[in-house]
Specification:
- By secondary structure, the protein is of the alpha+beta class.
- The protein has 4 domains: about 10-105 and about 105-145, Glutathione S-transferase Yfyf (Class Pi), Chain A, domain 2 (Up-down Bundle), CATH 1.20.1050.40; about 180-245, no CATH class; about 255-345 and about 540-605, Orthogonal Bundle (Neurolysin, domain 3); about 355-515 and about 610-680, Neurolysin, domain 3.
- About 55% of the residues lie in helices and about 5% in strands.
- The strands form 3 sheets. It has a 5-stranded mixed sheet. It has a two-stranded antiparallel ribbon with strand order 1-2. Strands 7-8 form a two-stranded antiparallel ribbon.
């Protein structure tokens, strides 16, 4: 019996993790691919004339079992992996790539889709069905349906190799991150670090069977060390270890993987008739072209860099007052920024953290969602978890109807990738009159509880939790007919709107007073601290914006040029980013080799979308703030036209239905206090 191939006789049809063993995956994938192929054959061999229902709809509903198995396996490969799981991933990824090509390059299937597409003006179909039809037709064309047989085989080979190299990139990054540790035995080296950070490092050392204190490259360990440690030399060591971890020309080096990935993506785009990978990707985004993205980023750079340079001078002058260096290095930035923030606003994370106990912040996010969208969260204990750290919730509406199952996985551990993300084990869709509700996952890496303190979050971690929870709401509140259009199945430069807008509630008195209680006294966060949070919201904003712009620029440089003449990843990266850099380059460091968003995470030629979506969310939140952050009418419109609709219509049309107009493009820079106007449209 293979539990992956059986009906899940579990509460809410949840994944039976306790019954699944590693040896079940490979045969389950093989069987599910076989069954999915049979479903495709059934569509192709249908003797009836192609219709929307027997072709387009049938295709979107096909492969349900394969999708279920894939979501379980690959989510665990990111959140709870092992050498055995990584080995299986390398075995099954080429099979999945080949199957994807079998569909995308199936000429008979394409002809049926094309037949329906060509008659779309005569069809009596809904806007959602029209979107699905156009999406499927374009997907076939964009993935080789019109290629000759030789080029189709070339495409298959490229896709197979890309899937394997991307896996290697991610595996190297995880292994290199886990490999490093800063082991401290001298108490003098702990100078400047808060007690809670020191206690967490002692706990890590104990787990690793070492004396003293251990700091790692995991976010909850690395960021506090870089922010508070007085030792510039140790900050330098940590910074270098982080920046060079997959660029050391050892067995975990990713330089060759980067070059091969961009080369294959370029070849693939050319094969399909595009100038480069960016043009291929952006054709199906709101931005539409690499020129528009480049102009957008250049405009933000023009407006933010002068202020960022002023911020840097202010920070350097302040550092000198504290006998710091005449020229700040990147590993000094966090340390002196925190001290300047304390001086200017009398505010630091150590003052705030007692008010942000993880459990309270989670409840706060739930309360905000309840006040906005009338949904309720109840912790449940009768469903399987893939790790004991995971907390599970049943989400219901005001009629006590099931909305979603929610998995929350918040602490770092070996086998779990760094960062934060939202994903799903089961997407929402309607089939045969049944609305299949989604199973949504938030994965983060927040500070662990210690022997004396609960998990207390930095304010940055609070906004991260709300950000990922915004993505989760996009998945939970989905209400579309077709799985291919459900939830976060939207344009990449639109998907960050629901996540980034929710961060705004973290700065609002009405929201903070719902969950920011001192973990010892139970007292609500004082008004003066709330005001300081608001006052400091734009502190070093231009520097932060410049950093995000630099990531978008390096992404576009990798994917909008012919990579054949690139011999050095480091040199190419430095040249591409030189106009955005404030701090001197650290010899041996390389960002691209650990840039998992674009080389192992689906954001290739799309990292700009974080800033693009900020324009949308800044404009959208102005709508809320002008009328009340818990205004039910506006919240209902956001739920109806943004969160529930997924990709069922063009995002600009959905946005206009919510807002009543196109986004006000100067909202982002106005909020940041940087300048009057930023245009994102031609």
């Amino acid at each position: 019996m293979n539990p992956l191939l059986e009906k899940f006789n579990t509460p809410y049809n949840t994944s039976p993790f306790s019954k699944i063993k590693n040896e079940h995956y490979q045969p389950a994938f093989v069987k599910a691919i076989e069954l999915a192929k049979q479903e495709i054959d059934g569509i192709v061999e249908n003797s009836e004339l192609p219709t929307f229902k027997n072709t387009v709809e049938a295709l979107d509903y096909s492969g349900e079992l394969l999708g279920r198995i894939s979501s379980i396996f690959f989510n665990l490969n990111h959140a709870e992996t092992s050498e055995e799981i990584q080995k299986i991933a390398k075995e099954v990824s080429p099979l999945l790539s080949e199957f994807g090509n079998d569909i995308g390059l199936n000429q008979e299937l394409f002809q049926r889709i094309k037949s329906v597409y060509d008659s779309k003006n005569e069809l009596n179909i809904t806007p959602e069905q029209t979107t699905l039809l156009e999406k499927n037709y374009k997907s076939f064309v964009r993935n080789g349906a019109n290629l000759n047989d030789n080029d189709k085989e070339t495409l298959r080979a490229i896709d197979k190799e890309l899937s394997q190299i991307s896996l290697s990139f991610g595996e190297n990054l995880l292994a290199a991150s886990n490999k490093y540790q800063l082991h401290i035995t001298n108490t003098d080296d702990l100078a400047g670090l808060p007690d809670g950070v020191i206690e967490a490092a002692a706990m890590t050392a104990k787990e690793k069977e070492k004396e003293g204190w251990v700091f790692t490259l995991d976010y909850p360990s690395y960021i506090p060390f870089m922010t508070y440690a007085d030792s510039s030399e140790l900050r330098k060591e940590m910074s270098f270890s982080s920046g060079s971890k997959t660029c050391k020309e050892d067995e975990l080096d990713n330089q060759k993987n980067v070059l091969k990935i961009v080369e294959l993506r370029y070849q693939r785009a050319n094969l399909l008739g595009y100038n480069n990978h960016a043009e291929f990707v952006l054709e199906e985004q709101m931005a539409t072209s690499s020129k528009k993205v480049t102009d957008f980023l250049s405009h933000l750079l023009e407006k933010s860099k002068p202020t960022a340079l002023k911020e840097n001078k202010q920070l350097t002058d302040f550092a000198k007052e504290l006998n710091g260096p005449n020229t700040l290095q990147s590993y000094d930035a966090g340390y002196y920024t925190e001290k300047l923030k304390q001086k200017l606003f009398d505010l630091d994370d150590e003052k705030l953290k007692p008010y942000f106990k993880l459990e309270n912040v989670i409840k706060g996010a739930f309360t905000v969602a309840n006040k906005l969208y009338d949904i309720n969260f109840e912790e449940i204990f009768d469903i399987d978890k893939y790790h004991e750290d995971v907390i599970t919730y049943k989400v219901t509406d005001s009629n006590n109807e099931l909305v979603a199952i929610f998995y929350a996985d918040f602490h770092p551990r070996p086998g779990k990738q760094n960062g934060a993300w939202m994903t799903s084990f089961n997407n929402q869709y309607i089939k045969n009159g049944v609305n299949n509700r989604p199973h949504i996952v938030n994965v983060c890496n927040f500070t662990k509880p210690t022997d004396t303190k609960p998990s207390l979050l930095t304010f940055g971690e609070v906004t991260t939790l709300f950000h990922e929870f915004g993505h989760a709401l996009h998945g939970m509140l989905a209400n579309t007919t077709y799985p291919g259009l459900s939830g976060t199945s939207v344009y990449r430069d639109f998907v960050e709107l629901p996540s980034q807008i929710l961060e705004n509630w973290c700065y609002q008195k009405e929201a903070l007073e719902l969950f920011a209680f001192h973990y010892e006294t139970g007292k609500v966060i004082p008004l003066d601290l709330i005001q300081k949070i608001k006052d400091s919201a734009n502190f070093m904003e231009a520097t932060s914006m410049l950093r995000q712009i630099s990531f978008g620029i390096i992404d576009m440089n990798w994917h909008s040029k012919n990579p054949k003449n690139i011999s050095s990843v480091v040199d190419f990266e430095q040249k591409a980013m030189e106009n955005t850099q404030i701090y001197p380059h650290i010899e041996g460091a390389c960002f691209s080799t650990s840039f998992s968003h674009i080389f192992d995470g689906g954001y290739s030629a799309g990292y700009y979308s974080y800033k693009w979506a900020e324009v949308l969310e800044a404009d959208a939140f102005e709508y809320f703030s002008e009328n009340g952050i818990f205004n039910k009418e506006i919240a209902n419109k956001f739920k109806e036209f943004i969160l529930s609709k997924g990709g069922s219509e063009h995002p600009m049309e959905l946005y206009k239905k919510f807002r009543g107009q196109e986004p006000n493009n100067d909202a982002l820079l106005r909020r940041a206090g940087l300048l009057e106007e930023v245009m994102i449209r031609d």
